[in-house]
């Protein structure tokens, strides 16, 4: 298969961290949403990620949704890559990487700490052979991606995040600091906790649930961190 022209996600995240800006990541499950994302992104000379969840893949098909997103990225000329979001099954991760995904998230946050570390490290070992960036989650972000309520939040701690990053060698880490998945709600981010976590790790942080956060919360998170990957299902991020 010919190599598709997509951004190097690890390099772009590191560049964002070094220069103090955030990269937006937006969910899609069809052509129409993908076109809207690419059209909006074409107004800015900034990199983004276009995300597909396992639910979106089940709906559209892995090969089909990958081709839709990559074709739209290439035809629009934006700086972007396809990201596999909230994958819990190693088989889906393996298949996505072999098709051409350049960024994946393994979500073992509902597992015990030991299981999460073990399975995340396995994913990192496989993905890094292909030059694929790996995100993982420690702590527990409320509400499953896709809006299915299945658990309450459990906030991350700076100590836990530090151990997790060191043990797994992931490229970016998603944390729970008051952010939640799903439709907009009355969320309150603990910016002090977010800052403490940012101070003790040297990789980019990921904030899920931007669809439910206020613009003020997003801007404050931007100001606190060296860089953040901010993920949203539909809300426009404020221009930098």
Topology:
Elements: H1 9-19, E1 23-27, H2 31-41, E2 48-52, H3 54-60, H4 62-76, E3 80-87, H5 90-99, E4 103-106, H6 113-129, E5 133-138, H7 158-168, E6 172-175, H8 191-200, E7 205-207, H9 215-224, E8 228-232
**Low-confidence spans: pLDDT under 50, at least 5 residues?**
232-240
Q: How many H/I helical runs?
A: 9
- Total number of strands: 8
Computed structural class:
alpha/beta
Q: N- to C-terminal separation?
A: 36 Å
CATH class: Alpha Beta
Q: How many separate domains?
A: 1
CATH topology: TIM Barrel
State the share of residues found in helices, binned by percent: 40-55%
Taking all residues together, what is the mean pLDDT?
Answer: 84
Radius of gyration: 16 Å
| Shape verdict | globular
Q: Describe the biggest sheet?
A: 8 strands, parallel, barrel
Query: Can you identify the CATH superfamily?
Result: Aldolase class I
Series of H and E elements? HEHEHHEHEHEHEHEHE
**CATH architectural arrangement:** Alpha-Beta Barrel
């Amino acid at each position: 298969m010919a190599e598709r022209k997509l951004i190097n996600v690890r390099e772009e995240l590191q560049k964002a961290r070094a220069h103090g800006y955030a990269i937006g990541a937006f969910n899609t499950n069809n052509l129409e949403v993908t076109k809207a994302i690419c059209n909006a992104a074409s107004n800015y000379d900034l990199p983004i990620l276009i995300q597909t969840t396992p639910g979106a893949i089940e709906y559209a098909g892995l090969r089909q949704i990958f081709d839709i997103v990559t074709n739209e990225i290439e035809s629009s000329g934006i700086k972007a890559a396809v990201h596999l979001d909230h994958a819990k099954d190693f088989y889906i991760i393996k298949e996505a990487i072999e098709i051409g995904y350049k960024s994946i998230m393994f979500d073992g946050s509902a597992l015990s700490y030991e299981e999460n570390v073990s399975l995340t490290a396995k994913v990192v070992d496989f993905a890094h052979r292909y030059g694929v960036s790996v995100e993982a989650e420690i702590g527990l972000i409320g509400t499953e991606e896709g809006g299915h309520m299945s658990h309450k939040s459990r906030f991350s701690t700076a100590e836990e995040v530090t151990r997790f990053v060191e043990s797994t060698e992931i490229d970016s880490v998603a944390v729970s600091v008051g952010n939640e998945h799903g439709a907009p709600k009355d969320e309150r981010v603990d910016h002090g906790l977010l800052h403490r976590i940012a101070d003790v790790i040297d990789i980019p942080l990921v904030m899920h649930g931007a669809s439910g956060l206020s613009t003020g919360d997003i801007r404050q998170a931007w100001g606190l961190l060296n860089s953040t990957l901010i993920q949203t299902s539909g809300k426009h991020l404020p221009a930098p």
